[in-house]
């Protein structure tokens, strides 16, 4: 299935699953849509916090058509599932957002770690949550974010257990993808970043950490949803976790440096 | 002081100190000199174990003049201090090796982590052993080496405590210097690589690990001395620990990739 075919199936309502594992090699993105009056503050927030909020594209107001990630593709109804936020609460999870569309909406597409996971696996680094078909483990931390207007809070991180001998490789490989969270924000000790119980992630699924593995922590695209919740905006739309926008660009187009 | 001036002072006998902190920015190298009959096995050993034994140059037999690291410079008496090994034992530590020179000696110059420490400090990563003017902490591990002829054993590693937020940076920065040990061989848990007591290094000095720091382990140039000891060769010469060969090339010439 091509990204265009997947987006078409979403529009027809026949695709209603998480997008992980579909359209291998193509970029997937987190979506946040806000009324224009909050857009400048949110864009500044992303620029100040590029590891958890790597801004790939801004669309609108007045249009919902992307020009970079999938030129000409609409962001309305082409994701499998959306969340509608009213007064800082997630009130609806829906497949169809035509009824919620407003001319003043600005759409933010943010990088997603699915892109660097492909590079890790190509290098022979095993990812337990992928092998076990689970969602990645995600945790709230004490790592502070740079505030901007109503947007503030702490970073959410994803955790992947990595074999003791491949930790440096994992840092170097993901460091080549600064637009999809980049290198880890921490390696080794959950307590140092305020995680009390590594066996109880706040989002996603728990995975086992074997005795020859080290927990490695990356900035996570769930961070903006956590921040939206605290900002209590009157209205916002996001993707539903795991139900991403699939673009026409290849993950490899986001690799930096000549060391690939 | 230029590298040529330092080597001249060594020849005159007026420089008799460890070379750390001298000739900033210039490459320093470990030295191993062996009779020709062991040279092919040792060179193969280095090629098979490039992280602990990164081969920068091979000199001889029949000459002791380098052509790469310091074109035309002699390796005889230009290091501040040497060790003479007889039947696998270190019998002498001397400033003058003219009396021990043999026509069949082959000299191996191996990369040294002093080169990447400069890059770490330039990136604002603090190194406690440098700040406290101590030798770096080094440990024997259970990480096996690829054997070659009489040369075999386990890797020796150096350890530097790194702030929790800079571990990935330390991996990425040192990964650009594959000729001077490169990226860490392990991050985080001493026990996983067979180190029982992190407060008791087998070589060098102990340094404190603060509560917000992670121990990071790099392959160490002391590995070949440990291997020589086990190989029990009838004759060998090495530098004395910390008393390195100082070349005319800059550390930056050993950086790889365009990400500097």
TrEMBL record, chains A, B:
NCBIfam families: PRK05463.1. InterPro entries: D-Glu_cyclase (IPR009906), Putative_hydro-lyase (IPR038021), UPF0317 (IPR016938). This is Uncharacterized protein YcsI, UPF0317 family. The keyword Cell division does not apply. GO terms for molecular function: lyase activity. Belongs to the D-glutamate cyclase family. It comes from the Bacteria. The lineage of its organism: Bacteria, Pseudomonadati, Thermodesulfobacteriota, Syntrophobacteria, Syntrophobacterales. Gene3D superfamilies: PSTPO5379-like (3.40.1640.10), PSTPO5379-like domain (3.30.2040.10). Keywords: Lyase.
């Amino acid at each position: 299935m091509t990204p265009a075919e997947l987006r078409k199936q979403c529009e027809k309502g026949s695709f209603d699953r998480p997008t992980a594992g579909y359209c291998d090699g193509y970029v997937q993105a987190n979506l946040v849509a806000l009324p224009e009056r909050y857009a400048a503050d949110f864009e500044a927030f992303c620029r100040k916090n590029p590891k958890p909020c790597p801004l790939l594209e801004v669309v609108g107001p007045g249009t919902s058509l992307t020009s970079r990630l999938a030129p000409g593709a609409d962001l309305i109804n082409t994701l499998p599932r959306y969340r509608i936020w009213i007064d800082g609460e997630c009130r609806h999870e829906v497949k169809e957002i035509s009824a919620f569309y407003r001319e003043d909406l600005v759409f933010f597409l943010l990088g997603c770690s699915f892109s660097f996971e492909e590079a890790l696996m190509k290098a022979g680094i095993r990812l337990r949550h992928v092998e076990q078909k689970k969602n990645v483990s995600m945790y709230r931390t004490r790592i502070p974010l740079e505030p901007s207007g109503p947007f503030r809070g702490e970073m959410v991180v994803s955790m992947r257990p990595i074999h003791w001998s491949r930790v440096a490789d994992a840092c170097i490989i993901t460091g080549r993808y600064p637009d999809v969270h980049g290198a880890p924000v921490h390696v080794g000790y959950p307590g140092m970043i305020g995680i009390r119980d590594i066996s109880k992630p706040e989002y996603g699924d728990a995975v086992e950490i074997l005795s020859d593995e080290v927990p490695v922590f990356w900035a996570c695209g769930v961070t903006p949803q956590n921040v939206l919740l605290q900002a209590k905006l009157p209205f916002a739309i996001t993707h539903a976790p795991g139900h991403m926008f699939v673009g026409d660009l290849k993950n490899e187009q986001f690799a930096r440096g000549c060391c690939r």
